[in-house]
Design brief:
Layout lengths: L6 E2 L2 H10 L9 E9 L4 H14 L6 E5 L4 E5 L7 E5 H4 L3 H13 L10 E7 L4 E9 L5 H20 L20 H15 L20 E8 L2 H13 L4 H15 L5 E8 L16 E8 L6 H17 L5 H8 L13 E5 L7 E3 L2 E5 L5 E2 L4 E10 L2 E11 L7 H18 L18 H16 L17 H15 L5 H6 L3 H9 L14 H5 L4 H5 L1
Parallel strand pairs: 5-6, 11-15
Antiparallel strand pairs: 1-4, 2-7, 2-13, 3-4, 6-7, 8-14, 8-16, 9-10, 12-13, 15-16
Helix pairs in contact: 2-5, 6-10, 7-11, 8-9, 8-11, 12-13, 12-15
Length: 545
């Protein structure tokens, strides 16, 4: 039998391998996706498409080990590929709760990198119209772009099989053939340049919330808000005038919101760099992302335009040094850190450009389901996205945060701060950022809540006469204006309101009471247990019955 070849892991992979040795951090090293398809699905064909896609790529067959003599982590791609399972939950009588437990286990159960393929997949038929595809890979061989490429390949294989043709897919190169790391001398020189650029910046960030316990929990939750098309257009126009991308705009908004809520003025912000600078790596499924840290600062006289320029400069400098290993930078700037991760800053900002509504085939659309539980690597992770809608482009700001915080209302309040920063940038780009403090509305004050709702009704209905106890529809509103009301009231209050909520509470006083309710933050999910336990859902007692 031929002896398998072993390839040296990249610096990033070696770091991820080390993190995976920590039991607490293991779930954070996974890249799970749960896609719910609505429409007809040929399940055997989909399972076969997933199996073929998983088996084609060397990275997804990798096994890792530590070579003590060479003092390196290395991998072989001679292992068996991952399989794709199928469950007909509808036919077998699985309840929704049982399916949720299985999905949770599929998404959060760690891999044994020495013996298992670093990927798994399951196709689950929920009913005649709904199907789940659960796909989980380990970050050590899989990044965000890899997920997009693998899903598109699965969809291509599926559509081709339905059409009875063989798709034209290129032969995937081995990841080791497209990796070129700089020499130790080159790296050392780059590290010193980055260290000098970042030196003096605090490695901590004054966060908008406080953890409830000293015991760090990695279970998180997500929240999001969107700007209306008009505000989005103005914000993007000002950013474009300063040569800023959507990512750079996000840097400016995040720095502004953090600065306006504290006395801190100098920030280190981490972000993920694709790491596919070499053309031959563009279409390879593997782990090429590197974590990069940028620096952005402001003072009392910094205007919004100047902050955008600062964000652009800080981003461009970081882009130029994107291949410098973060652990070496952290060792210089934060030598006393007592945690494996995060090494330099607790704040991350990323551009969210992944498709949220993939199409499996004509007539069958998909949506990404929220992850439950969600495991977080950073205390605060902000994602910026420009979403195309029928009304126009909309800037979406979302964040992941810990669930163990003392004041749950701090999360929607910070989202509101981000929104207000965006509005101020759009309307007053020449004004100093810090001379426009965020005027937070005290949602605990009944009078302020009533004033807020009343003023927005007046704006939406274009009238000065509003009765607090007359319904929105009796006051001249209709269903379309109700949608506008939801948008504007959510933006002004920071609460994530739904149309159905305002429909049920249709008066000024009723909607003011809605704002008094604390923000809902998902509680930490209980342990899913082993993946096998989730598959074998019935207890012995149930089986006996």
């Amino acid at each position: 039998m031929e002896e398998p070849s072993w390839y040296p892991a990249t610096r990033m992979q070696q770091g991820l391998w080390v993190l995976d040795r920590d039991e607490l951090l293991k779930p954070t090293q996974l890249v799970p996706s749960v896609i719910e398809f609505t429409g007809p699905v040929d399940h055997p064909v989909l399972v076969d498409a997933v199996r073929r896609a998983l088996g084609r790529h060397p990275s997804l067959r990798a096994r890792f080990r530590l070579d003590v003599k060479r003092r390196r982590v290395e991998y072989s791609t001679h292992g068996a590929p991952a399989d794709a399972g199928f469950l007909d939950a509808a036919a077998e009588g699985w309840t929704a709760a049982e399916v949720d437990r299985l999905v949770s286990a599929l998404c959060s159960t760690p891999f044994d990198l020495a013996t298992e393929a670093p990927a798994r997949a399951e196709v689950i038929r929920l009913d005649t119209e709904r199907t789940l595809l659960v796909l989980t890979s380990h970050h050590i061989v899989f990044d965000g772009l890899s997920r997009t490429m693998l899903l598109e390949e699965i969809f291509t294989l599926y559509r081709a099989a339905l059409a009875g043709v063989e798709p034209e897919l290129s032969s995937p190169p081995h990841p080791a053939s497209v990796v070129a790391e700089p020499s130790e001398e080159e790296t050392a020189a780059q590290v010193q340049e980055v260290v000098e650029r970042l030196r003096g910046a605090p490695t901590g960030v004054h966060l908008p919330f406080v953890r409830a316990s000293e015991e760090t929990s990695l279970v998180g939750a997500s929240a999001a808000t969107r700007l209306d098309p008009g505000t989005t257009a103005k914000v993007l126009a000002v950013a474009a005038q300063e040569g800023c991308t959507t990512f750079m705009l996000g840097v400016a908004l995040l720095a502004a919101a953090l600065a306006r809520g504290s006395t801190q003025r100098d920030f280190l912000i981490a972000f993920a760099w694709p790491g596919r600078d070499r053309p031959e790596a563009a279409d390879v499924i593997g782990m090429f992302i590197t974590t990069v840290v940028l620096r952005v600062s402001l003072d009392g006289s910094t205007t919004w335009r100047e902050l955008l320029r600062n964000a652009r400069t800080g981003s461009m400098e970081a882009f130029m040094d994107s291949d410098v290993p973060l652990d070496a930078i952290s060792a210089e700037l934060n030598p006393k850190r007592n945690a494996l991760w995060p090494p330099l800053t607790p704040v991350l900002l990323n551009l969210d450009d992944a498709p949220h509504t993939p199409e499996l085939a004509p007539g069958t659309t998909g949506r990404l389901r929220p992850l439950d539980p969600l495991y977080i690597k950073y205390d605060l992770a902000v994602f910026v996205r420009v979403e195309e809608s029928t009304e126009g482009r909309r800037l979406e700001l979302s964040l992941d945060h810990p669930v163990d915080i003392t004041d749950p209302s701090a999360v929607p309040a910070f989202l509101s701060d981000l929104r207000r920063s965006a509005v101020d940038l759009a309307t007053s780009p020449e004004e100093p950022v810090l001379e426009q403090p965020v005027h937070a509305i005290d949602l605990d004050d009944p009078a302020e809540r009533l004033d807020l709702v009343r003023s927005i009704w007046q704006e939406v209905l274009e009238t000065d006469e509003v009765d607090d106890d007359v319904s929105f529809f009796e006051s001249g509103g209709d269903s379309l204006l109700l949608v506008v009301l939801v948008e504007k009231l959510s933006q002004a209050s920071g609460r994530m309101l739904r149309t159905v909520d305002l429909f049920r509470s249709a008066t000024v006083s009723g909607q003011a009471d809605l704002l008094a309710a604390p923000a809902e933050v998902p509680a930490p999910a209980g342990g899913a247990g082993a993946l096998d336990a989730a598959r074998h859902r019935r207890t012995a007692g149930e089986a006996a019955r």
